[in-house]
Amino acid sequence: MVKFSRELEAKLVPEWKDAFVDYRQLKKNIKKIKLSFLRSSLPSSSSSGAANADNGGPHISLFDPVRTLAAAAFSSSRHDQPPPTEEESLIELTLVQSTEDEVREFFENLEKELNKVNGFYTKKEREFCELFPVLNKQLQILLDLKQLLHEHNARRRSRQGFATPPSPGDASHSSLLGRSASFTDSVQSPSSDAEQECLMKEVIAAMERNGVRFIGSTWKEGKKVKEGRLRAAALRIDIPATTPTRAISLIWEDLANGIRREKGSVGGGDYVNRKKVQRAEKMIRDAFLQLHRGLGFLKSYSSLNMEAFQKILKKFEKVIKVADEVERIFIKHFAGSDRKKAMKFLRPKQPNESYTITFLVGLFTGTFLTLFTAYGILAHVTGIFSASSGGSGSYLETVYPIFSMFALISLHIFLYGCSIYAWTLTRISHNFIFDFNPSTALKHRDAFLVSAVLMTALAIALLLHLLLQAARVSKTLVDAVPGAFLLLLAGVLICPLNIFYRSTRFCFIRVMRNIVFSPLYRVLMVDFFMADQLTSQIPLLRHMESTACYFMAARLKMQPYETCTRSLQYKLMVYTISFLPYFWRAMQCLRRYFEEGYDSNHLWNAGKYVSAMVAAAARGKYAVDPTPRWLAIVVVTSTGATFYQLFWDFVMDWGLLDLRSENLFLRDQLILKNKCIYYFSIVLNFVLRLAWIESVMRFGTGQVQFRLLEFSLASLEVVRRGHWNFYRLENEHLNNAGKFRAVRAVPLPFSELLSDG
């Protein structure tokens, strides 16, 4: 039987954890009362040992203190018993007072928890109740705008000789947005002043019914402005500039509106057009979805706390020997006297999950291990990696970058699955933090399946390539294997069919687009989280450049193949690619600095990535000019960047190294119970951050050893990033929990609203 405390932790809203009833503390108070009752029963049992001996020995009852109090109350009617000694009376009085103190403490804590729960529930209920009429008013404005657009467009079509427009009742349908002309264009179209005046009256009347304040409007009932020219009242719709196209559109519209206002032309304000109304409809829809989600959380909060109070009172009643009374009351009043129904509510069973994915993970993992073992044996037999083999250099320089690139991707996906499993196990709301849809987001088994399938396909390609090379097949056909493998995976990534986690694939493509075109797009949590992952995949980006150079030079004959290995331009290109993840991440920090109220922390964060770019540039120069001077510069810049990154990892990203914390060098709130894990993680992250030393010391002499060391260091950096991911989201989750953020805030489009009162 699962304890209710664990059920409560499994079901509660993680961001509201501190607002839930402290069930464990109340249980501790119950245990104190129980121990106090046990202690208070010992003197009475010792004084009546002879009487109990006849019944088989002393019997300790939890109800003995109650009997003691009752006996004391009616002692005047019992003169046949000898009066207790002064010492016995003092002991009994002390124990009874101790029990009373424990009971008083329990009820004080119970009242405090009840007030906390009621206060939080009232606060959230008030917030949601205040938001609901605002959203209703926003929706009414949207419907009126769509109705006006439709009716005016229909009248214009009828004047121009078009077909009879559909009935106005269909105007509320969203498809009308696609057929309605721009409201601005409607106002600006050639028509008489009387028609424009009539249209403006309709717009103003409809908007003022919803409490809209018109920006810069000089309209008065029955009046016109000077020179006999009408000025259209304007409704401002706040649409966030989340994409470059939208940002350019807003800038252009602001410029056009400014010119109109300067000229005093008709409609010299901020106009409503079809695209704005469409975007406003989507924003209001998202706001309603978030409101519904928040109300669901509030309902769950209410039911869980009610059940917690029921459970804790039941335990208290059991302590004072009122057995099963609370359960009987609950069954009678809350489950319609249906015990089975009550047990389902009190001890709900988790739904059985399908283990098909688990089976497939095991199947593909076993297949990969078998194929990779066969590849290792065949590679040893053919001597492809031996120093004496003439083809080892060509194999490592051409095929190794392609296959190692996908091996690093597969390792990263596997570690992401491990992170998802750890986040789920510790109740960290990663889907809420990343704003993922829980119904389509990857679960840890899904990530493991993707990794296993990718590694199996990689092992098949490796084995097939080696078999064809050992069979002395033409080089063109042999080299087609990695190219075909690359094209196959690229095709799966962009496949429009709803197979193999399409929503996740498209989300990945969208996030990569946002990263590459930073800072043109608004930066979300998932965007800079993925950009941080790219900073740990710089070897992968270099392998991508090597692969592109290989196919263009060796296969397409666009340039000599030696260009990809020995030319100065190639080396500079490699280190230029190393700058890109840091550059993208720095641009994201600058975008957030301007968007989030000029928070200087974003500038310091950007400085961290700039220092990494400087260190990468120094190592690039040292690679082509290995002099003592550049070695010293590399050591200084890399050391500075490393300690900058370590400070940001521990203090800002993980929230650790708090000198005022009750947990030494950690933080006050820790999700993991074992503190040693945090200390070990700090040491591990520090050690893995020093991988750049290898580029200075130049370990390894042979080509095979160099490639193996390079792949090992790249894998260790991926492992460090996967390890970093857990603590980064743990800190983000604790920040959300500290502010009770469990619902995403959706900006509302119509900001110019005034109450009618």
Task: Explain how this protein is built.
This protein is mostly helical. The protein has a domain at 392-442 and 501-733. Helix content is 69%, strand content 0%. Helix 14 runs antiparallel to helix 20 (538-555), helix 18 crosses helix 19 and helix 22 (600-624) packs antiparallel against helix 23 (628-653). It is globular and about 85 Å long.
Short description:
By secondary structure, the protein is an all-alpha fold.
Average pLDDT, rounded to a whole number, is: 75
- Biggest pleated-sheet summary: none
Q: What share of the residues lie within helices?
A: 55-70%
Q: Could you tell me the radius of gyration in angstroms?
A: 36 Å
Number of separate strands:
0
Oligomer designation: single chain
Task: Outline the low-pLDDT stretches.
Answer: 41-93, 167-192, 213-234, 265-270, 753-757
Category by helix and strand content: mainly alpha
- Per the principal axes of the C-alpha atoms, what is the gross shape? globular
**What distance lies between the first and last C-alpha atoms, to the nearest angstrom?**
57 Å
Order of helices and strands: HHHHHHHHHHHHHHHHHHHHHHHHHH
- Count of runs of 4 or more consecutive helical residues: 26
Tell me the strand percentage band.
under 5%
Organism: Canna indica
GO biological process, one term: cellular response to phosphate starvation
InterPro entries: EXS_C, PHO1, SPX_dom
Family: Belongs to the SYG1 (TC 2.A.94) family.
Protein traits:
mainly alpha, disordered C terminus
